Amino acid sequence: MEIFNFDEWAALAKASPDEFEVRRSHYIEQIISRNNNATRLRHLQWRIDTERKRARTTFKSYLQLSTMMWDSFILFCDAMENPRSEPSRQAQIIDLRRKS
Fold first, then answer.
1. Residue partners of 9: CB distance under 8 A and separation at least 6
2. Tell me, what's the pLDDT at 81?
3. pLDDT for 87
4. Alpha carbon 20 to chain centroid distance?
5. Cβ pair 61, 52 in contact under 8 A
6. Are the C-beta atoms of residues 7 and 16 closer than 8 Å to each other?
7. Which residues of the chain carry a pLDDT beneath 70?
8. Which of 5, 23, 89, 98 is most buried (most C-beta within 10 Å)?
9. Residue 38 neighbours by CB distance under 10 Å
10. Residues near 32 by Cβ (< 8 Å), separated by ≥ 6?
11. pLDDT at res. 85
12. Are 27 and 17 in contact (CB under 8 A)?
C-alpha cells in the first residue's frame, strides 16, 4: 500500500468527490483487513460512515464524530483509573429515522 499523501487526496476530493469516496473506502478496507480486530474495526467504520451520511452538513458530521471519539476516550480513561471494574455494557440506541 502506498504512503498516504494528503495533497493528492485533497485534490481528488475537490476534482472528483465520487471517486474520492470510492478510493477512501478501498483504502480504509485495506487497512482494516490487515488488522487482528478487523470485525470490530469494520463495525466502527460502519458507525462513522452512518454518522457522516446522517449529518446534514460537514460541520455536523465533525461534531458527531468528535463526540463519539470523546465518549470512547472517557470510557478508556475510566478503565485506566479502575482496571478491575467491569466495562459498561450499555448500548447506545441510534435513531436512524430521517428528521424532517
1. 20, 24
2. 87
3. 62
4. 16
5. yes
6. no
7. 1, 85-89, 100
8. 23
9. 13
10. 38, 41, 42, 45
11. 62
12. no
DSSP letter (8 states) at residue 85: S
Say how many residues make up the chain.
100
Q: Residue 20 in contact with residue 49, Cβ under 8 Å?
A: no
- Please tell me the distance from the alpha carbon of residue 26 to that of residue 91, in angstroms, as a whole number: 29
Q: Which three cell numbers stand for residue 28?
A: 480504509
Under 8 Å between Cβ of 72 and 47: no
What is residue 88's predicted lDDT score, i.e. its pLDDT?
Answer: 63
Give the tens place of pLDDT for each residue, 34-49: 999 999 999 999 999 9
Amino acid at 10: A
Cell output for 36: 487482528
What end-to-end distance do the CA atoms of the chain give, in Å? 42
